[in-house]
Amino acid sequence: MDMAGSGVRLGRWARRGLRGALSGLAAMGLAFTNLPLLVVSIVALALAPVPFLGLALVPWTMTLVRKRTDLERRRASRTGVLVTRPYHPPPERAVAGAWPHFRWTVTDPATWRDLAWLGPGALVGFGLGAVGVLVPLYGVVGLTLTPLWIWLATGWYGYGATFAIDTWPGVLLCLPEGAAVLAGGLWLAPWLRRVDAYFARLFLAPTRAAELRLRVTHLTVTRADTVDAQAAELRRIERDLHDGVQARLASLSMTIGLADKLIDRNPAQAHKLLDEARESSHTALVELRHLIRGIHPPVLAERGLGGAVRALALSLPVPITIDVDLPGRPDTPVESAAYFAVAETLTNMIRHSRAHTGSVSIRHADGALRMVVTDDGGGGADPAAGTGLGGIERRLAAFDGTIALSSPPGGPTVITMEVPCALSLPRTMPSSGTD
């Protein structure tokens, strides 16, 4: 089991390093698009005083620049470095080529920060990408090409370039050196991608004033989403009560009334109706319990977030490892939102990921409740594909929470959810450990 686990970890480490090297290669290619965009932008700004031409050319050019910087933000997010879009919201009924659209583009400070990044971003991205690609490639040369070339022709100056590798002992020395260089390159490549992402964040992330503006906009949107979600939830509860429990209780009342009329004339038929009424009351009770669990599970109120997630994991067909360490309990609304977010994430894992195992880690640190759900499925999760991640994001956004997704093709999928909150009510039962 240890050897198998080590092999799995080694494979994941190698895939991570390979993805970092390929990402570095992509960064080298994308760097060549920065300079043409910079030149075109300078030309467009120089032509801005020209009537009609400047009004249309500048916004069109800046749209291309924003597409490029948005791509860089997405690339940074894949390394775990979050870079938020800092742009002002567009004016209402803005028409391309019109003055409001032009003014919205050129008065946004983020536009000029994007332009300032194009040149340095190209140099840093190309340089770090080249290192991330060439170092592993140099290791591959030591493992493969050097012995092959020595076999075909002696006297080739290979690794180190300080002595002629013209003997088989010299060739054999290239093999461990190549393996070491390859391993070092695969370890280094992901870190170089993170350095590039942090450099991009210096230019492309919102300033403090922009963050405050985005914060106000975000709160306005999440407040509206919360109101809509609460109204939809109330309608759902009303519909479930009306179509389910209420209808069954009405039928139960009619059955009991009919049995009361038949109790003297036809006792056997009356007893049969009472049996039906007993079954109907049991079904109504089950439906009512399901409805209550959908509002606020009793196990959550009794055992807290850790106990509720453990109980949920036991009902799933895939083995889930639970690791919870909470020195207290969040407020009830936050605790409920966190539970349903984890539940929805695990449901998505069962439905879409084809995972064999999964894990849930819940911690509280730096004033935030952090929940990490991982599975070993096929990856490729996309919030735009209707997998429920958008609903989770809206649920957490009501409490200023965030969700981050890492799901490369082939897996693993890691979903990290954070909700700012404080803990209260000291823990009354053990909730840490691993199941």
UniProtKB/TrEMBL annotation:
One of its GO terms (cellular component) is membrane. InterPro entries: HATPase_C_sf (IPR036890), HATPase_dom (IPR003594), Put_sensor_dom (IPR025828), Sensor_HK_TwoCompSys (IPR050482), Sig_transdc_His_kin_sub3_dim/P (IPR011712). It comes from Virgisporangium aurantiacum. The keyword tRNA-binding does not apply. Residues 338-421 form the Histidine kinase/HSP90-like ATPase domain. This is histidine kinase. The chain crosses the membrane at residues 21-40, 46-65, 123-150, 170-192. Residues 27-204 form the Putative sensor domain. It is an enzyme of class 2 (transferase). Residues 233-300 form the Signal transduction histidine kinase subgroup 3 dimerisation and phosphoacceptor domain. Keywords: ATP-binding, Kinase, Membrane, Nucleotide-binding, Phosphoprotein, Transferase, Transmembrane, Transmembrane helix, Two-component regulatory system. Its EC number is 2.7.13.3. GO terms for molecular function: ATP binding; phosphorelay sensor kinase activity; protein dimerization activity. The keyword Flavoprotein does not apply. It catalyses: ATP + protein L-histidine = ADP + protein N-phospho-L-histidine.
